[in-house]
Amino acid sequence: MILKFAALLTIFLACFSSPVQAIYDPRSVNNNKVGVHILDPHEIGSVPALVNSQGGDWGYVTVPIQPTDRDKDKWQLFMEKCLELHLIPIIRITTIPLGGTWSAATPTDLVDFANFLAELHWPVENRYIIIFNEVNRSSEWGGDVDPATYTHIVRNANTIFKERNADFFLLGPSLDSALPNSQTSMSASVYLKMMEQEDSQVWDYFDGWSSHSYPNPGFSAHPSRTGWQSIVSYRTETSTLAFGDKPIFVTETGWDQSKLSPSILASYWSQAWNTWNQDKNLVAVTPFVLQGGNQFAPLSLTSSEGALNPSGLALQRLPKISGFPRLANNTLPSPTPTPNLESTVAQPSYKPKSIVLKIENFLRALFGLQKKLYLQVENDYLVVELAGNARDWEKGLSGRDHLALGEGMLFVFPKDHIPTFWMKDMRFSLDIIWIHNGEIVSILSNVSKDDQKTLYSPSSPVDMVLEVPGGWAEQKGYQTGMKVKVYD
């Protein structure tokens, strides 16, 4: 019997195995553009308060990694914390600092980084990698400005990283757009043209554009300014290039807080986010820097003691949205666990994707258990048990001790009618959500487990009813008129 079951399971897995994944366009999903640039993975715990505040979820975090810092335990912990805290990592690979100068990169550096980063378990499908930093500054590239060599590095990077994992999403070139043409620097416009002259296909090697769109001059310009030295310099950078329709990431930006008052800073950040939010091609903005010590104190979002500086406070207060990235390892995001809900237990902040659900349903069918489905309520996802026949309708959730966070029971009826529900034998309170034609029509909140006599019905015919833990609908902001979709 065991051997027969194992054989069936093997056949089942073979039938539903999926091909190797590749990158997806982050503009194709709900996306929280707000992010923060940090200097060390250990700072990750301070990021959610800034990027996932005010209705936000799944913001971004940019962090550099040096060749001497390839500690697998350290960086795997960072990735796990990103998953736990709902943060999307952007990793900027660097060279080795040599006094006041960073060494130039070599193909060997790329191989070592690609091997190391490919071994890590990332939280999201897209593995965002920035190909070095401000290479039009000689101090960032071995004392020279060399667009030809950087172009060859980018071409090699595309091959080396993609061979190891098709989910690597390569970003660049992250130039300093305020630099002039001099003995130690090259203007961004000239550098980009020389890259294109070296290889006319160079922009094909990037999956997206990384820009340092600072409000210059002096990190203090008004947000309405445009052109090379502005918060939208990425538009000027890409406007004359054959870059194509690709997502854009502002991985560094910010104002000098020593030059502007807190009220002006708040106004500038608000105006900037209005501009960035309206740009459909812009995916993320990660201001520099969370905590920059004495060197970057005017740009730091927090003080050395951890208190929010004016820019950090402005960033925290910006209205945000709940992002829905595609998670790695065949998982879907689900609501962040809320410990205050009654009669629930802590659950992971993600749920398995379709292949895992198919496996689970295969096993559930063997034991006569109800099928599970995915349910989407606007931007929120749940895993629900299907109650699709009279026996399931009658039993419902009675006799259970709890219902896990992010899960529910979906009653599906063959035709529109007015069903009757009651709390007989229930051991925890519920929200009962009436649904018709894929839309919430009304919600009964916190129906008490102690009231086992009252009958509950909708005021008009419905074709589905969703039961979730009491208080869940309010916590997640469910309202009448919200769209509901079912996936298996």
Q: Topology of this structure?
A:
Layout (H helix, E strand, L loop, with lengths): L1 H15 L18 E3 L10 H4 L7 E7 L6 H14 L1 E7 L3 E2 L2 E2 L4 H13 L7 E5 L15 H18 L3 E9 L11 H11 L9 E5 L20 H7 L8 E5 L9 H16 L4 E4 L24 H8 L13 E3 L16 E3 L1 H13 L5 E6 L2 E8 L2 H6 L11 E11 L12 E7 L2 E9 L14 E8 L2 H5 L7 E4 L1
Helix pairs in contact: 1-10, 4-5, 5-6, 8-9
Question: Helical element count?
Answer: 12
Which strands sit side by side, in order, in the main sheet?
A: 1-2-3-6-7-8-9-10
Q: Which percent band covers the strand fraction?
A: 15-25%
Averaged pLDDT: 88
CATH superfamily of the largest domain: Glycosidases
Helix residue percentage: 25-40%
* Corresponding CATH architecture of the largest domain: Alpha-Beta Barrel
CATH class of the largest domain: Alpha Beta
The low-confidence runs, each spanning 5 or more residues with pLDDT under 50, are 1-20, 330-352
User: Total domains, how many?
Assistant: 2
Outline: elongated
CA distance, first residue to last residue: 29 Å
Explain what this protein looks like in three dimensions:
27% of the residues lie in helices and 22% in strands. By secondary structure, the protein is of the alpha/beta class. The protein folds into two domains: 21-317, Glycosidases (TIM Barrel), CATH 3.20.20.80; 332-487, Protein of unknown function DUF192 (Jelly Rolls). The strands form four sheets. An eight-stranded parallel sheet has the order 1-2-3-6-7-8-9-10. 42% of the residues are buried. The model is unreliable at 1-20 and 330-352 (pLDDT under 50).
